[in-house]
Model the fold of this input.
Amino acid sequence: MTRLLCCVLFGLCATSLYGQTHEAEPNDTAATATKVELGVTAIGELRWIGVNKYEADWWTFDATAGDTLRFVSGAALPSTSMQLYGDDGVTLLADEVRDAPELRYAITRTGTYFLKLSGVAENGTTPATTDYYEIGLYTNRHPKPPCPVANDREPNDIPSQARVVALGERVDAMLCQSGDVDYTGDVDYYRFHARQRMRVQIRIDRDTGSKPSAWGNPSLLVTRDSVDAHWKNAWRGGSVFEFWVPEDGDYYASVKATGVNIAYSLTVQSAGPVPPGRGEPVHTVAANLGDPAALAVASNGDIYVSEQPGPDGRASIVKVSRAGRASTWFVRDCPCGSGSVAFDAAGNLLVASFPWLYSVSPSGAVTQLIKSDDGGAFDGVAVAADGTIWLATFFDQIRQYSQQGQLLQSYGVHAANPLDPYAGHNLVIAPDGVLYFDVGDGIYRLVAGKPELFVRDTSEADQLDAEWPIGGFTFDGQGNVYVPHPYSGGISVYDRSGAEIAKSFAWIAGAPSALAFGRNRDGSTNSCLFVIANAAYNALPMPLAGRLYELNPSAVSEPGCPVGAPPVQISIDDAVHELLHPGRLSAQQLTALDQQGNNNGRYDIGDLRALVIANGALATRVKIAR
Amino acid sequence: MPNRRLFVLLALAVLGCTRDRPIEPPSKHAGSFSLTLATPNTDDAALFFELRGPGITAIHAMNSAAHLFADSAGTTIRAAIIGPFSPGGLATFDVPDTTRLGDYTASVLDVAGPDNTLRASLTGYALRVAR
Done:
């Protein structure tokens, strides 16, 4: 029955019941204008003729004094604009309403009129070959027909009116541009319940008939509480949006589009849970890290996390000990830039800020090392085995500098990935010494000064609007690359040839954005694999709920995690007993307790207090240790 | 006759082998002492201390929001109390004989501040047992 209803709705849109008139080329001048009646929908295409513009389409119609024109454009592309001319085809009577795809005019003299449609490409865009449009030629005597009733249970234009949809249920719906209040079109809200780790798939099917695939292309926005957003704009071919659920709860899917009366069907379904990966369980090393941007691991095992600016405009670099004790190590000057960090051979931490690349010595002395120029702010930073410093600039250059900050080479990598003109967000030197960088949905390597594709991520769940599914990446000693995906929370692993090893290697209920291996005292990496993540990637305001996680080290093809590696699980009972009667805990556990506490080199009452606080309030106020 | 002698011998053997002591009746002097803290600071957050004396039981922090951990072995009891607490009454404990106040002493071993760091000096700290 629903399929039948949908077919009927699609049929209504496509037949002359709505009164459609197609253009008759040539109609590029008033003299060759296509004749049309008021009250119908005028349909045509503007053809790109170069020199930053499209051809013009002219329409002509007869109007009677007293007619109030209200022409509404349901264009698929935004460039189409309308102008109304008098019977000479020269006298301009009215332009499109500012910032709205609508033209209004009160006819005072019965006669013939002309409607001109024209278009220009927006700055910076690649023009489409054609610009499809539909113009509703409504008047007070020929008003816009009502929207057909569908199964989306209008009104559902706001979250509180959302249509509740069960998993697996198909809803046949209709987007009806009102033109009265919101020129951007109708919006349909749906609410569904999902469980943590569920792979929710939202499928939207449309039949565009003979219209361009981009016509009335709906966009989908999935939200939890109106701040945590995942969206998708490309629905060609009945594609599916996949969303890995971070926590149990109700979620909203809102669908909207420009265009006139767009029929579609929506199905929310579960593809089962995200399967556990070998990199799990994931262990929390430290919390309360603000909005973490990047991390680097010092040779002594301490982890340095750069934070994005907080509400106070300050951006810190936090040092996290292997036992998870976090302390502010350095406060960056702001504007803060990307915050990418890397250690050089001398143990200085290089920090990509704006407009400088800072070098911070182990004692905290700051040196302005390299200043950014017209290449834009520094983005990624990496240090090669020969000590040279590699920097990615915001405007698509990767540069090599000497240790003293002298420019040695510059490589343009603009053409690496058309999806993303701003190349080189993260720079990483692989074990074989080759420089890798990520652009859009791909990881590339610099070979003979040219970008060469290494691996591309096209997983639906990893992609937000099909553009930036990669947070950062790192290599183990074998050349395998580990890639976190901020949108899905998944972490993938590829081998040195780019072949997929595990996907998902691990999953985090948040937005993992960068990772790094632990280091031994000789600088080599070990199997401690750390990941920074925030609660969400797109939330506004951005939550300050950053965490540092460690993946399961046994899943990593590296020598083992050194002493002190979490999880060092110590109960309060054991910690109390150790304080009252020493001898129960190992040296490793005592070190961990001390580092989590006051880090004074021995286990004491202050460390016990830190542990009690970290574990929350106790059920019993008096504990007798025997 | 042999049976009666055997019975007596068995009874003596049982009495001789048992390690149970007779149950003592509650002392009419049983009661509680309090432990008071003297401190040079106003923001102490955790205290590690020793309490010495016979038959100590039922140690309780006076501030119910504090966490008190103690062992119960021997006459020297080690205990840790994690704030909040303030100068003055710190804890109470039960003793079998409140007439023997002089048998009970206490001393501070370590004190931590609100940032978990240890006080550099324990000068000015003292614990006193009182009725």
In short: Residues 10 and 98 of chain B are 42 Å apart (CA to CA). The first helix of chain B runs from residue 2 to 17.
